[in-house]
Amino acid sequence: MAKIIVVTSGKGGVGKTTSAAAIATGLALRGNKTVVIDFDVGLRNLDLIMGCERRVVYDLVNVIQGEAGLNQALIRDKRVDNLHILPASQTRDKDALTNEGVEKVLDSLSEDFDYILCDSPAGIERGAQLAMYFADEAVVVTNPEVSSVRDSDRILGLLASKTRRAERSQDPIKEHLLITRYNPARVDHGDMLNLEDIREILAINLIGLIPESEAVLRASNQGIPVTHDANSDAGQAYTDTVSRLLGEEVPLRFHEYQKKSLLSRVFGGGRR
Amino acid sequence: MSLNVDRASTAFTFKGGMLPMTVMELTSADPERIREQLAGKLSQSPAFFQHTPVVLSVEKLDEPHLALERICAVCRAHKLLPVAVRGGSDPVKQSAWALGLGWFPPQEIKPRNLESVATPAPEAAADNEPVPASGGRIHRGTVRSGQQLTAPDGDLVVIGAVNAGAEVLAAGNVHVYGALRGRALAGIHGDAQAGIFCRELHAELLSVAGNYKRLEDIDPRLLGSAVQVRLSDDQLAIASLA
Ligand SMILES: Nc1ncnc2c1ncn2[C@@H]1O[C@H](COP(=O)(O)OP(=O)(O)OP(=O)(O)O)[C@@H](O)[C@H]1O
Ligand SMILES: [Mg+2]
């Protein structure tokens, strides 16, 4: 039985797709059979970040509507053996996704995979609710700004009420807070919310903190999930996050503002 | 035929009961003015108006004839359901009955027993035990943006924070053992003795028996501190609990 993890946020552009790709890659690198599904019908993005956009033939909607088999639609990752991608449709209408259809797809994937990651669209409407509905765990992606925190709070309310686990009064979805695009210097200046404020408001377990990093931009332009960039701060932060998802205890990094020392500037160490 | 009436064969039983009821104390008999004020309140706290039964008190009016039918229509248009009239002249009583409303005799006049808010009794803190009155409700955990929590018959106790964008309502008191960042409405059926208590005040809106203050109206010096909110002379008074 696979563990179903939704990556969600409410607010758009906070780093859901980046995180879904990076975490899926990290889980697969650790030997877990992993599939990552793009639920953002009409705005597909995951295949770009995973670098497989040229190999897309069929998508989630085709599978749900019976136009293709699951194995025809699944794309095998070029770099990691255990990793598969199920892309979203660029052309179809959002309403093409049905609850029953999604359930069927997840059920059959569950037989073969250890982890199923669902990359949610932004918002709190049907698409986002469908992406979270069958989840066992949720990674709530939050940027250090008031509106993002507010939207994450809203999403947490939905996770506790509008999901299968909630409706069936089963154990609640395990909620994890993932803070992304954290810029310690700007937090220090008071331009952004700090880590403790966010934790206090959302009051859920912190699974990771990803600094604002050029490595992410580079990675998405190259179509290589940033987890592969083991020297980068963001790559390391996602690797830490994956370890914590797997139950390990890893100290938090990259959250403190350090003025660069002369040495680190000379040797190019520290953040890149 | 038997004289023994067993339970299964009775169609109903009469029971005495005390139900919480909002009293709408009219100080004007002009339906237009009532309409204006209701419209304003409705936009400020829509949660207050959910087909709430109300008793129209006309004790403070000195008019032998009332446009009762029009006043009732205005109320219903704003999702208040008049169920009875209290006080008024004989013709008022007759027209209440004609409209299918009940009639109550005027209330005995008692001095209002409002505790001084500025100087809370030293043992006030001891009253804040998380033990709600019967009919109350205890919620453990954060109340999140978009969520609404109501205790329609008593006190509401939240053991956790009420986040911005969330709304908590109670017929009685609202206690928040955490930060209050959302909207809190106490005394939603008109109980003017109700209060709001919280550990950390950042509320978007505070309301007791329909009298409200927005975040903007709150003295910034009180923000972030533990407070109690009470109604004093139809004004919300916010006092530090420290
Ligand atoms: N840690 C980071 N540092 C710098 N840039 C980042 C970081 N994380 C994400 N970004 C950038 O932010 C933008 C949005 O990221 P992404 O597409 O992952 O967000 P999303 O939440 O999936 O957006 P949408 O709501 O549109 O689906 C991208 O340009 C991405 O490169
Ligand atoms: Mg996305």
From TrEMBL, chain A:
Pfam families in alphabetical order: AAA_31
GO aspect biological process, one term: negative regulation of cell division
AAA domain mapped to chain residues: 2-150
Keywords noted in UniProt: ATP-binding, Cell cycle, Cell division, Nucleotide-binding, Septation
GO MF annotation list: ATP binding; ATP hydrolysis activity
SUPFAM superfamilies cross-referenced by the UniProt entry: P-loop containing nucleoside triphosphate hydrolases
Binding site for ATP: 11-18
CC per GO annotation: cytoplasmic side of plasma membrane; cytosol
Cited function: ATPase required for the correct placement of the division site. Cell division inhibitors MinC and MinD act in concert to form an inhibitor capable of blocking formation of the polar Z ring septums. Rapidly oscillates between the poles of the cell to destabilize FtsZ filaments that have formed before they mature into polar Z rings.
Known partners and oligomeric status: Interacts with MinC and FtsZ.
Alphabetized PANTHER family for the sequence: SEPTUM SITE-DETERMINING PROTEIN MIND HOMOLOG, CHLOROPLASTIC, SEPTUM SITE-DETERMINING PROTEIN MIND HOMOLOG, CHLOROPLASTIC-RELATED
Family: Belongs to the ParA family. MinD subfamily.
Protein name: Septum site-determining protein MinD
Automatic annotation (TrEMBL), chain B:
Entry annotated with the keyword GTP-binding: no
Stretches assigned to the Septum formation inhibitor MinC C-terminal domain: 139-238
GO biological process, one term: regulation of cell division
Sequence intervals crossing the membrane: none
Septum formation inhibitor MinC N-terminal domain span: 12-82
Region (Disordered): 118-140
Signal peptide feature range: none
Highest taxon of the lineage: Bacteria
Keywords linked to the UniProt accession: Cell cycle, Cell division, Septation
Gene3D superfamilies in UniProt: 2.160.20.70, 3.30.70.260
Role: Cell division inhibitor that blocks the formation of polar Z ring septums. Rapidly oscillates between the poles of the cell to destabilize FtsZ filaments that have formed before they mature into polar Z rings. Prevents FtsZ polymerization.
Record's subunit section: Interacts with MinD and FtsZ.
HAMAP family membership: MinC
Protein family membership: Belongs to the MinC family.
Name under which the protein is recorded: Probable septum site-determining protein MinC
